[in-house]
Amino acid sequence: MSGKQNLLGWCLTILSVALCCITIPFSLFFCVKVVQEYERVVIFRLGRLMPGGAKGPGLFFVIPCIDSYRKVDLRVLSFDVAPQEILSKDSVTVAVDAVIYVRISNATISVTNVEDAIRSTRLLAQTTLRNILGTKTLTEMLSDRDTVSHCMQATLDEATDPWGVKVERVEVKDVRLPVQLQRAMAAEAEAAREARAKVIAAEGEQKASQALSDAAYVIAQSPSAIQLRYLQTLNSISSEKNHTIIFPYPADVIRNFLASAAKG
């Protein structure tokens, strides 16, 4: 049976080639094709893959009626993953979307092993996004997007390798939270900021009290320090150009007065 099929195939091929030769130059419009630099073409003859793999770039020839071909674009393609409703590890429902960058690494495999390589990759990306983010907490989703993207890229790349697809990059675009959760997180952040402000104010009061205590100790150890402080105060008052005049009473006079009063 296989021999009869091969013989029939050869007969059809010879007949098609003879017909093309008879109808030259009109047949050249149907036989000669062009492949761009970023494209490859996979040719099937009587349903069988032509040896040698994908053709291109440049010119290639097909035999009308018995040859069929399919062009494959090798450029990097990007597509959005529709927002997925995901239940996180800590039981929070979020909507997550992503963008995937892929390219065809093997044109022949992408045609023979899968019906639509790019569409299949898009569907697989949706499932992979749900599976990976379902094992993460909300905090990990928000803070470790790079880790999630790399994990998703590795998983997709391994799964799509038999399809001749190379996953170049995965980016998690947005993580949308419920409105109630956004309000709760905003209130929590505001409370944390207020707590930090109170701690900073308390630390400032503590440092100011320590500075006053140190100043009082210095003044107590040096009686002339209070006189210098009087002079500094007078200098500050006079620089403001006001009408108030203050005469400080000498501290030694006050001490002598207090001492004589105690003796009397």
CATH fold annotation of the largest domain: Tetrahydropterin Synthase, Chain A
- Shape descriptor: rod-shaped
Order of helices and strands: HHEEEEEEEHHHHEHHH
> Regarding CATH, which class of the largest domain?
Alpha Beta
- Number of beta strands: 8
- Whole-number count of domains: 3
Subcellular location: Membrane
Domain Band: 30-189
Protein name: Band 7 domain-containing protein
Keywords: Membrane, Transmembrane, Transmembrane helix
Main attributes of the structure:
264 residues, alpha+beta, Tetrahydropterin Synthase, Chain A, 3-stranded antiparallel beta sheet, 8 strands, 54% helix, rod-shaped
Write a structural description.
This protein has 264 residues and is of the alpha+beta class. The chain folds into three domains: 9-72, no CATH class; 77-177, Tetrahydropterin Synthase, Chain A (2-Layer Sandwich), CATH 3.30.479.30; 184-263, no CATH class. It has helices at residues 2-22, 28-31, 107-112, 117-133, 138-143, 145-160, 179-221, 223-239, 251-263, and strands at residues 32-35, 39-45, 48-49, 58-61, 67-73, 77-87, 93-104, 165-176. The strands form three sheets. It has a three-stranded antiparallel sheet with strand order 3-2-5. A three-stranded antiparallel sheet has the order 6-7-8. The chain has a two-stranded antiparallel sheet with strand order 1-4. Strand 6 (77-87) and strand 7 (93-104) form a beta hairpin. Helix 4 crosses helix 6 (145-160) and helix 7 packs across helix 8. The longest helix has 43 residues, at 179-221. The model has no long low-confidence stretch (mean pLDDT 78).
